[in-house]
Amino acid sequence: MGIVNEFHEPPTFFGVERPNLDKYIVPSTWREIGAGFTGNVKEASLKYQLYVVNGFKSYDGAGKVSGKKGMRSGRQKGAESFMTTPNLSTKVEFYGLTGLKLGASFFGGKTQSNKYAGIEKSDKEATAAADSTVLGLAMFGLDARYEIKGLKVRAQYNILNLKNTEQYNLATGSNAGSMMNGYYAEVAYNAFRPLGFETKLYPFIRYENYNTHAAVAAGITKDAAFNRTDITAGLSLELAKGAVLKMDYQLAKNADSNSDDKQYINLGVGVWF
Question: Which of 103, 134, 148, 273 gives the lowest tally of CB atoms within 10 Å of its CB?
Fold first, then answer.
């Protein structure tokens, strides 16, 4: 799903921190257990992936999906996972033009809840209570990467629709939105390329918007503070393949007129081994 979730090692993305779209809506690093297959249709320049996996957990004694953290707390991280219903994950990528890669992704199914543990199928009241802690979900994504002569451009868009959020929020005391969406666009250029240096220095800038309350069901009020915009600009110095020094300035704001903008200066060292 997207770019960073699949290629998440620090030297592969600009900025000390990954885009927040890839933190709260596509909660990288996001890994689940399952089975599937991949392939490459060379005649059409298409790669594809399809997996059946366990899904997000929405309840493990408390609600895990919220307006503040989006889907991040729902990651199961493989070894700690449990499954009540299977989910489908698929992606198609086109690579037929030099320097360009285009991806389309889908993830869908139902969230997982441990409230079903120990319930008899004949216990309709307990089953209904467990059902109220489950969300139906469908996440779609588009991403693009283009690279030519030291120039790198990236863009990504994701939209997530959630069903049963009214019952879920009542049952868990959460404030999950019924729709989350976001996008970012980023451009960088290797300033050392005209000089012929092997070391690469990328000034970059990224504009990002992500909203975990793009829509809400009855029972809660849409919170403008969850409609967030980040502008990040900085430098990425690639010392060698798999090693990078990073610094950036980030301006973070949201749509709530009563909130203050936040500013960050980030420094980091990234190593991929």
Answer: 273
Q: What is the pLDDT of residues 74-132, one digit of tens each?
A: 999 888 899 999 999 999 999 999 999 999 999 999 999 999 988 988 899 999 999 99
The answer to whether position 140 is within a domain reads: yes
DSSP strand pairing (34-41 vs 46-54):
antiparallel
Consecutive 10-residue runs of the chain (273 residues): their mean pLDDT?
A: 91 94 95 94 97 95 96 90 94 97 97 92 92 97 97 98 97 97 98 94 98 96 97 96 95 95 96 87
Q: Partners of 180 in the beta sheet?
A: 160
Q: How many CB atoms are closer than 10 A to CB 120?
A: 8
Asked whether 122 and 66 are in contact (CB, 8 A), the reply is no
Evaluate if pTM is beyond 0.85.
yes
List of residues 6+ apart from 129 with CB closer than 8 A = 115, 171
Domain that holds residue 159: 10-271
Q: Which helix (H) or strand (E) holds 262?
A: strand 262-271
Only one residue has tokens 């404030």, namely 175
C-alpha to C-alpha distance for 173 and 168, rounded to whole angstroms = 8
Peptide bond into 232 cis (omega under 30): no
Q: Which residues of 182-207 are buried (b: 16+ CB within 10 A; e: fewer)?
A: bbbebbbbbebeeeeeeebbbebbbe
Number of domains within the chain: 1
Residue 94 domain-assigned? Answer: yes
153 within a domain of the structure (yes/no): yes
Question: Which residues are bridge partners to 240 per DSSP?
Answer: 243
Domain with residue 234: its CATH number is 2.40.160
